[in-house]
């Protein structure tokens, strides 16, 4: 479990200086209309939503992303994460419950080549706002898996949770053991392609109240880690995860972590 703890610590660290503004490529122009159904570009307003990401990724398979809002920003109900140049550009679709406002949410993604990484937020009533950064990284979707297949089978679905107060809110870190194979990697022993096998659905609640859900593609990193601030209600944290092979894991953690 040392690797998971280290990953969480790395995720919690500050992002590099944010001088890597979006570049807006031809790929985005196509994705905006054909994939997201948006005719016009989405306004950028860091007072409503900001996205932090490193200028140059230390490791393309686990690029840290942080979504934040100012304290008085309007609540965000859903976010679509797009990595323009990835093989499957729509990396994740999140929904957020009221306890997550204002948003302070971190996770890790694979970036396959130099690309804009953008979050398109739904504010309700047809209003959207976008945030993003240009990240220099390559090979993240085909990077070798970090462990052998026996270790994968032995630990898949294991979870860890920790939480504690910070700046007047509760901050939780959820760690899940899963290889999240992208379908573009090779087994380092057999040199054969490893079929895609990843967590495609995640739901996190405190009691019955929703914290967040995730519908994911191949771009969420191996052994996913999620760190987020929320308003606690004193109820246990309940996690439901499902992967593309039909495996399901449910776990409950004490409210205090």
Automatic annotation (TrEMBL):
Residues 173-253 form the Sulphur oxidation protein SoxZ domain. InterPro entries: Fuse-rel_SoxYZ, Ig-like_fold, Ig_E-set, SoxY, SoxY_sf, SoxZ_dom. Residues 46-141 form the Ig-like SoxY domain. The keyword Disulfide bond does not apply. It holds the Pfam family SoxZ. Residues 1-17 form the signal peptide. Keywords: Signal. Gene3D superfamilies: Immunoglobulins (2.60.40.10), SoxY domain (2.60.40.2470). This is Quinoprotein dehydrogenase-associated SoxYZ-like carrier.
């Amino acid at each position: 479990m040392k690797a998971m703890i280290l990953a969480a610590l790395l995720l919690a660290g500050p992002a590099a200086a944010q001088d890597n503004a979006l570049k807006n490529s031809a790929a985005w122009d196509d994705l905006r209309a054909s994939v997201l159904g948006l005719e016009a570009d989405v306004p950028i307003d860091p007072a409503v939503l900001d996205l932090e990401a490193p200028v140059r990724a230390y490791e393309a398979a686990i690029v840290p992303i942080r979504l934040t809002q100012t304290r008085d920003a309007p609540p965000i109900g859903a976010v679509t994460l797009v990595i323009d140049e990835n093989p499957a550009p729509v990396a994740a679709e999140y929904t957020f419950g009221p306890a997550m406002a204002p948003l302070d949410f971190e996770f890790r993604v694979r970036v396959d080549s130099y690309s804009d990484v953008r979050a398109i937020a739904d504010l309700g009533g047809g209003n959207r706002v976008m945030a993003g950064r240009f990240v220099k990284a390559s090979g993240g979707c085909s990077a070798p898996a970090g462990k052998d297949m026996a270790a994968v089978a032995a630990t898949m679905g294991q979870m860890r949770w920790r939480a504690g107060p910070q700046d007047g809110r509760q901050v939780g870190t959820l760690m899940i053991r899963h290889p999240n194979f992208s379908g573009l990697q090779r087994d380092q022993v057999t040199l054969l392609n490893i079929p895609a096998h990843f967590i495609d659905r995640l739901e996190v609640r405190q009691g019955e109240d929703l914290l967040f859900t995730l519908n994911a593609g191949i771009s969420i990193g191996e052994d996913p880690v999620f760190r987020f601030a929320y308003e606690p209600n004193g109820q246990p944290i309940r996690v439901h995860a499902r992967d593309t092979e039909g495996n399901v894991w449910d776990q409950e953690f004490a409210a205090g972590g």
